[in-house]
Amino acid sequence: MEAKRDVGVHSLAHARTEKENMAxxxxxxxxxxxxxPTVDRNIWASTFPSDIxxxxxxxxxxxxxxYVAFSHILASRRLLPKNAFKQRNIDGNVRAYIMDTAxxxxxxxxxxxxxxxxxxxxxxxxxxILVVSSTIENVTDVIEMYTWRMRYEFDGEPQAELLQADGTxxxxxxxxxxxxxxxxxxxxxxxxxxxxxxxxxxxxxxASPFIRITYxxxxxxxxxxxxxxxFPDDPILRPDAQQVPLGLLQTKYHGVSVGVxxxxxxxxxxxxxxxxxxxxPNGDSLDESLDGEAGAGDDAQHPSNNDTIxxxxxxxxxxxxxxxxxxxxxxxxxxxxxx
Length: 339
Description:
It contains five helices and 15 strands. It is an alpha+beta fold. It has one domain: Cell Cycle, Spindle Assembly Checkpoint Protein, Chain A, CATH 3.30.900. The radius of gyration is 19 Å and the shape is globular. Mean pLDDT is 73; it is low at 13-37 and 282-339. Residues 56-260 form the HORMA domain.
């Protein structure tokens, strides 16, 4: 059994208001982005490696894809102000709002993902988790959680696997080339779009996001990903949260499974069916086109107290255009007034 070692909180919180309303993700209406799009290689290469022929290119892909996916979730769930994002064309069919590195928040997010890159390069990162707590004051009371789970060659075949709550493998994925990887990515982003904008109930006002990392058992004792700090307490997901698998990504060198657990899901089975119908209207899911080959899943993971916390800045920063105060406490962004 692999010990679950944790790097904790990269908090991105601000008090949410009902006035914020934006469409954080779009698909071109004249494409087949919903389902299995054709990837524009030139546009794709502006965000991701044009091909995956080495471990380093695979690492770059997964780090950037996590950045895009987490940015999209933060925008879709209205957890950060909309001026922290910019629109980006991902593959010619799919456009998403990602965090703008020209802003204070975007620059700090990008800085922290450099630490994520190192942890993946060293094969230390097991899970990258976007956690949403009920309030900024109570980061251990978790109401929503998006988990980006990595697999490596030392796990055996580095297949991306969707697991049930008990660790049983539901489906495993193998690498089929860059075009197929592009389709997997588009399907994942469309799934996130549909989930966040259409199927999840709104988060309560005051909900606060932060980023947490869990480590593999190969990680040296005391290691902290750059920019992350120990956090003493484990986040506790509320017992009424329901779980939905969201997608798989696979290269020759890494595999990733993505899932969500949330109290904003009324019925997990209904959400799964809606995602299948809306994202893959012909029932031709990339996950279901597999031959059903399943590898051995990891044993159930239990958290330890080796948590860390991210502090983004040593000083407070005032952004007068939207009246945001960024505090020294782990990327806490508190909206002080509405305009």
